Amino acid sequence: MSIAKNLVFDCESGGIGEDISLLTAHFAVTDEDWNIIDELSLFLKPKEVDETGCAIYKVTAGGLGVNKINIVEHDKTAITKSEAGQKLREFLWKYKPKEDWLAPMGKNIDGDIRWVNNHILGAPEWRKYVSYRTYDITTVIRYLKRKGKLAADAPEGLEKLANFLGLQFDAHTASGDVHASIFVMKYLENL
Question: What is the pTM of this model?
Answer without folding.
Answer: 0.93
